[in-house]
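Re-run with default settings, no changes from the original entry. Doing this only to confirm the output is reproducible before filing.
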Amino acid sequence: MCEPKATRTVDVTNRSGIHARAATLIAELVRGSRCKVSLIKDRERVDGTDVLQILSLGTRCGEQISFEATGGDAQRVLDALVQLFADNFGEDEEKIQEAENPQ
């Protein structure tokens, strides 16, 4: 039986790229799904549940990353990942700028 498969590509807009906290959020989201998710950058593919593998991609702001999900809730998990990236991993860019440039 063939399992549903879906792919998505996102632009990384978070100023810090995919750092440790972001990689942890990605892995936790994937672990909570019922499917297998891979992250793909250039020609490198890593397991979406492994924080160190996600970090090994070295994804920076302005780069693209693709997701490939296989399983019953593939579309749902990809939608959630896209939203996580759109929300910059819950980091408030304005607060970060204020902390870096106190007046």
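Residues 5-91 form a domain with the Histidine-containing Protein; Chain: A; fold (CATH 3.30.1340.10). The CA atoms of residues 25 and 32 lie 11 Å apart.
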